Amino acid sequence: MNRQSHRLTFGVLAAGAGVFALLQSLITPALPIVQEAMHTSQSTVTWVMTAYLLSASVFTPILGRVGDLVGKKRTLVAALVALLTGCLVAALAPNIAVLLVARVLQGIAGALFPLSFGIIRDEFPPGQVPAGIGNLSAVIAVGSGLGMVLAGPIVGALDYRWLFWLPVIVVGATVLLAWRYVPESPTRSEGSVDWVSSLLLSGWLVALLLPVSQAAQWGWGSARVLGLLAVALVLFALWALNEARSRNPLIDLRVMRLRPVWTTNAAGLLFGGGMYALWAFLPGFVQMPTSAGYGFGSSVTGAGLLMLPMVGAMFVAGILGGRLAGRFPAKAQLVTGALLGAVACALLAARHGTPADVAVAAGVFGLGIGLAFASMSNLIVQSVSPAQTGAATGMNANIRTIGGSLGAALMTGLVTGHLQPSGRPLESGYTHGFALLAACCLAASLAALLVPGRRRRPVAAPVEPAAARRDAEVPLG
């Protein structure tokens, strides 16, 4: 693969993964508008996010495994087609039920993350893999944050449906480019998909994430929440037992038990709790009217502008993290990123009286996200064989999502637990919530310290990446 091909392949992967990441946060600020336009309730419209979350959680590890078996390119194209279909259906949705179906279709594209990382590992020269993964992680992180910035201007200038029409245009072009220019990875796993494991994995993920994401409405002590959590525990045990006995495990539990993998996943769970919860609640905090005694009364667009330091810092840190991998190892980046997240949340808990206070904290947190995202992906990729890259990185993404759901649920309980006579949250709810998120990020840094400093041998013998057999190492740019 020559230099131009590398650039084109990376551009296609970045476009697909970036749009999916964008859709994670793009619709959130517009939920009240969607609720009014579709004449539905607040509890129902929250399913626009929940359906997307559940779908991505189910399909990310499954399609990551399918890509390892049948080919990453064809699976990537299929995921992009699902994303394109979901965006088109969402843009045309006449009611909330159709919109929810569209969000499920969009969630299938969560597999773009592990598939893209696997293609980079298979096709790029070994010396350029950390930079490629770091750059793609930066794009994913920026896309996730950029949605909060772009939602206000798009809805204000056009209509909420353009939150889906614009991705239709980008994803449509990306499908064609991926089919034409992304090479099919030569590295394949042997075996087949264990569909019993797939069903059990889907079952325990849904049974876990559904009550966690809805606990604020249903109540943590409600029969629905406790019952579903019990079902999740039983299904998880059955899944683990089936995986241990399967000839073709969906996710090789030996890989999950590798110290570099489980420690990175533990850090991802905790850091994800802080990151996703901050994304969900910081815009609401700055939009709170000053009559509440805090907040700035910002519009959706104004709140997005306050998030710009975070987005810019994420991009810079993600790019630099991959390029400095030799002198600043992935473990050190993960520890540093989590510590920066803890510092940012502590700053918000202590000082949040002016927009400058929030912007500074957001920028610090963005640096932490950029470093942590790139380093987690690199640590997983370096610790498993090429044939296991899709499933392992997909599971890491899932674990971050689970952490985010737990963090958001806990933050919801603190913020909405005590209200003013006006019905608005007390400032102390946000203060205690930011302090909790600081503790989550600090715990993530401690978990990252347990990551081995040296790379360990993967469970399966690694297959030499295709690019390693080529003559020259071509820089990503």
TrEMBL record:
Major facilitator superfamily (MFS) profile domain segment(s): 9-456
Key words, A-Z: Antibiotic resistance, Cell membrane, Membrane, Transmembrane, Transmembrane helix, Transport
UniProt-listed Gene3D superfamilies: MFS general substrate transporter like domains
GO CC term, one of those recorded: plasma membrane
UniProt key word Cell wall biogenesis/degradation: no
Topology term for the membrane: Multi-pass membrane protein
Localization: Cell membrane
GO molecular function, one term: transmembrane transporter activity
Pfam families: MFS_1 (PF07690)
Membrane-spanning intervals of the chain: 45-64, 76-94, 100-120, 132-156, 162-181, 193-212, 218-241, 262-282, 302-322, 334-352, 358-381, 402-420, 432-451
PANTHER family assigned: BLR6921 PROTEIN, MAJOR FACILITATOR SUPERFAMILY MULTIDRUG TRANSPORTER MFSC
Protein name (record): MFS transporter
